[in-house]
Amino acid sequence: MLTQLSINNYALINQLTIDFSSGLSIITGETGAGKSILLGALGLVLGNRADLSSLKDTSKKCVVEAKVAIATYNLKDFFEEVDLDYEELTIIRREILPSGKSRAFVNDTPVKLSVLNELREKLIDVHSQHQTMELSDNSFQFSIVDALAKNQDKIDSYKRGFVKLNQLKKELQGLETIQKEENQQYDYNLHLFNELEEAKIKVDEQEELEDKLEKLNNIEDIKLNLSEALEISANDEIGLQNLLNSLENRLSKIASFSKEYQELSSRITSVKIEVDDIVSELEDANENVEFNPNEIEEINDRLQLLYNLQKKHYASNNEGLLKVFEELSEKVSQVENAEETINNKKKEIDDVAEKLDKVATLITKSRADAIPSLKKELEFLLADLGMENARFSIKIKPTKNYFANGKDELEFLFSANKGGNFGELKKVASGGELSRIMLSVKTVLSANTQLPTIIFDEIDTGVSGEVSNKIAAIMQQMSKNMQVIAITHLPQIASKGKNHYKVYKEEIKGVTTTNLKQLSTEERIKEIAEMLSGKDISDSALTHAKELLN
């Protein structure tokens, strides 16, 4: 529940800190005193959008802070989900800087407004007059039925499946789109794929062929130079081998005379071995040199094929061609396997839909089971609020369509008069009737949801007399299970509060400021008497005020 609200530099408020307690708290004040400013500040700290107009002094920042006791409301899992520190007394703070920038914190951790709004839904329900129009909103009507039907877990499960189903349908649509596009290109892609597959391309093939072609194109020079190299190396009289043999022979004869000569001899022997090896390879190379016109033609044809394919596919080498080949293979395979993939995706959709249908059926049944009790409770509460002939026609219609909260359509109609026709709430109920209907709805919701705090902003508009006493009694009953804060202009309701706060304006140094204070017993008597008779408080009004408080 809300335990404290602190406001600094907001609208007409300089600085204000007010403590709240459990039970029913009442806020009163003259029209224009600033009750809406309090709600605006509370809305700001709970995630409403803000701008510089919220600042009383535009040179200083505006800070609104709310302390909320949450120990008994099972919110640890939520705090873990949004990565926030859980504190039994949670502090929510909102700051608006003079620059216009807005910041929000939960237990001193910066948060986005989306997180703040999620937390708000679990902590405080602020009901103002214009929100009675929610009664005609179909999603709100569903929330009433589902609260009484205890459907939250089932709907959470359904929503997870609903998200999964939509994701799968989106994937199927994507696959079908791709299949359609790829089918148009399939024949051409298959032709290109087969052409590259038939070419049997290897990564280093082009370089090897170009080297081989270079040899064959210069075969005469190669043969001539290899022959002359052999002549120079292996001639019996003047060849390198013969000369090295003679050199080795001379040095071997003096090797024993000195270490220096021995090293020279060894080096010549090494050179001779290397030259012998070279001569052997020259002989092999010379024997293998053959001119083959057919081979040149084959290599030229092969290289031309590679060059043509590279140009066709904008590839700079064989590696690029192989990458194109892989891409074409994937495209061809995608089309050839698309039917199977699409069928598998359809089966997956059918499986999820089947599970979703089972959950939706359970939701439909629990809604249908809850409607008689909901109808009975609402009509009973409204009868107590002076609308004895109020009747509801609430019907659940199962459909084949998947909606965000199930597969049902909801018809939520109302008749205020005996024998009257049923119609949409916004068309057949007056403003005062809508206020009483909303109070009845909130009463039902409070008994079936775990909401810590509810704030009523003049929900008693358009009612008076005995009905106002009934409204006060209902609020008192609600406050046994939750914190109720009511902004009211009716003394009958104001007198039923456990705590009573007054909003008032005062002028300080020529500047109008809004303040809020908790009233003592004597101050309450005076405030209620003023609500009864106006500024000129009569003795009878004071007596009546005391009677109301007692």
TrEMBL record:
Annotated coiled-coil positions are: 165-229, 318-355
Domain RecF/RecN/SMC N-terminal positions: 2-507
The UniProt record lists the keyword Nucleotide-binding: yes
- Biological-process GO terms, alphabetical: DNA recombination; DNA repair; SOS response
| Highest taxon of the lineage | Bacteria
Q: Which GO terms describe its molecular function?
A: ATP binding
CDD domains assigned: ABC_RecN
Arranged from A to Z, the UniProt key words for this protein are:
ATP-binding, Coiled coil, DNA damage, DNA repair, Nucleotide-binding
Gene Ontology CC, one term: bacterial nucleoid
* SUPFAM superfamilies associated with the record: P-loop containing nucleoside triphosphate hydrolases
Family per UniProt? Belongs to the RecN family.
Q: What does this protein do?
A: May be involved in recombinational repair of damaged DNA.
Listed PANTHER family: DNA REPAIR PROTEIN RECN
NCBIfam families linked: recN
The protein depicted here goes by the name DNA repair protein RecN
What does the organism's lineage look like at the top?
Answer: Bacteria, Pseudomonadati, Bacteroidota, Flavobacteriia, Flavobacteriales
